Amino acid sequence: MLIAHVTDPHIGLRTNLMKAHPGPDEAFRRALAHLRQLQPLADVLLLSGDLSENGHTQDYEALARVIGEELSELTERGLLVLAIPGNHDNPDMAKSVLGDLMPVAADAPVGRVCIHVERGGLHFIGLDTVHLGFAHGLLEEAQLHWLEVQLKACAGQPVVIFMHHPPLVSGIAIMDACGLIQGAPQLRKLVAEHGQVQLIAAGHLHRPVVGALGGAPVVVAPSSSHQLDLNLEPGAPLACRMEPPMVGIYRWTPQDGIACHFSHVNPFAGPYPI
Ligand SMILES: [Fe+2]
């Protein structure tokens, strides 16, 4: 099982600060084109939020169009694409346009994009950490209860959780201030009790970051577009840095467990046999 992870495309973002940048829309297209070159191809693609910059309908339509244009061959061969919203998104708008990518569970808390799909023996559970109108994220009681029910229903079976706001403290102060400010301790308890969570995949930080929660690895993938400057000084200002975009490529088998790779979207010379 190969899981591709593309996050924070911020479709629709327009800024002249990104002078040599192809723009978020084109950067997203290049990330998906990169997935087509993988051997073997991914079985699942997770999109972990900030799909749009401003939550506009046309942004989600553009995102769906690019997915259709770049990945139709892969989806015809069975690629499963799942998406959850981030703080820049309008979840209702996203759902109305991207319904196929957001198969909200029948028992999900009202208004929440909670997803539970099984593929290849792995349970993919998507959580919706959006607190509408705020940059920070949260998991409130209803969603934690829903998650508890899901995890009990697949006791002993492997699970991948994906969510926008990562349940970790990165040390990038300004991002931690707008991180997952509610629900992380309860999530840790549920993950530890289940004992078979293979991975928690997240976005929001626009950097590759690895942590752990309740015995499971937490992996934050970089943005397909622009990254945040790595500055761990308390009080450091938030700044972008045009480091090369990457996609997460996570290999999982029942025997070997999880191995998380990051693959550069931009071309590099090689491979040179040695
Ligand atoms: Fe973002």
UniProtKB/TrEMBL annotation:
Coiled coil: none
Protein name from the UniProt record: Icc protein
Keyword entries, A-Z: Hydrolase, Iron, Metal-binding
InterPro entries, alphabetized: Calcineurin-like_PHP (IPR004843), CNP_phosphodiesterase-III (IPR050884), GpdQ_beta-strand (IPR042281), GpdQ_catalytic (IPR042283), Metallo-depent_PP-like (IPR029052)
Assigned EC number: 3.1.4.53
Family: Belongs to the cyclic nucleotide phosphodiesterase class-III family.
Domain Calcineurin-like phosphoesterase: 1-208
Stored Gene3D superfamilies: GpdQ, beta-strand dimerisation domain, GpdQ, catalytic alpha/beta sandwich domain
GO MF terms held by the record: 3',5'-cyclic-AMP phosphodiesterase activity
Pfam families associated with the record: Metallophos
